[in-house]
Design brief:
This protein has 7 helices and 4 strands; from the N terminus they run H-H-H-E-E-H-E-H-H-E-H. By secondary structure, it is an alpha+beta fold. It has 2 domains: about 55 residues, no CATH class; about 100 residues, Flavocytochrome B2, Chain A, domain 1 (Roll). The structure holds protoporphyrin IX containing FE. The site of protoporphyrin IX containing FE (HEM) has 9 residues, from helix 5.
């Protein structure tokens, strides 16, 4: 006899729990939690990509050093789509071999628009686009943008091999054939002397 009211109260409890449970469910799938789940998922995906990509990067054979001035048209060939996969990028009139940064500038990379291109304007204006101009003299950039281009140039000099100058239309390429040194910025050094012994 005594159990009857108990069962009723249990029933009514579970009934009154139902909306509470719903509340909890809606709390769990609140927009904030969904956003957090999405961010965690994205970060895990990035970590996964980093591991898988770095292993494929190491498969790349080191390419012979390239030392050459180029026109914008010549530079275009080096977007990473040719068999050797070499990628070059020009910044502030200098061409850099960014093949070791292929995952950034190579096909499918986040900065692929810079591969085989003059990236100066894009870097200056913080936009991943490259101009289709035959030669971009950057003369319309303001002083802050020019400062930014110079900082990027310094960063590229530190990280990547210098290939040569980006030639203006009609400009003659430098002949680098005598230059055997690794130190491309100081032609005054004498590697031939070292080799003589
Ligand atoms: C929300 C937007 C962006 C995020 C979250 C982002 C993130 C990053 C990160 C994490 C790196 C370093 C990667 C590494 O060293 O492993 C990087 C490098 C870089 N980013 Fe961005 N970036 C953004 C936008 C841009 C834009 C708009 C530009 C174009 C001007 C840009 C140009 C570069 C360049 C040139 C590098 C250097 C790659 C190298 O080391 O050669 N980024 N970015």
């Amino acid at each position: 006899m005594a159990s009857a009211p108990d069962t009723k109260s249990q029933e009514s409890e579970s009934l009154s729990e139902a909306p509470g449970f719903e509340n909890e469910v809606s709390n769990v799938i609140s927009p904030v939690n969904l956003l957090l789940i999405a961010i965690i998922g994205f970060l895990l995906y990035k970590i996964y990509c980093k591991f898988t990509k770095s292993s494929s990067d190491t498969v790349l054979v080191e390419l012979p050093k390239l030392r050459k001035d180029m026109t914008v048209a010549e530079l275009r060939h080096y977007d990473g789509n040719q068999p050797d996969g070499r990628v070059l990028v020009a910044v502030n009139g200098w061409i850099f071999d960014v093949t070791r940064g292929r995952r950034f500038y190579g096909p499918g990379g986040p900065y692929a628009a810079f591969g085989g291109k003059d990236a100066s304007r894009g870097l200056a204006t913080f936009s991943v686009t490259s101009s289709d101009k035959e030669y971009d003299d950057l003369s319309d950039l303001n002083s802050m943008e020019m400062e930014s281009v110079k900082e990027w140039e310094a960063q590229f000099r530190e990280k990547y091999e210098l290939v040569g100058r980006l030639l203006k239309p009609g400009e003659e390429p430098t002949n680098y054939s005598d230059e055997e040194t690794e130190d491309t910025d100081s032609p005054a050094s004498t590697p031939a002397d070292k080799k003589r012994d």
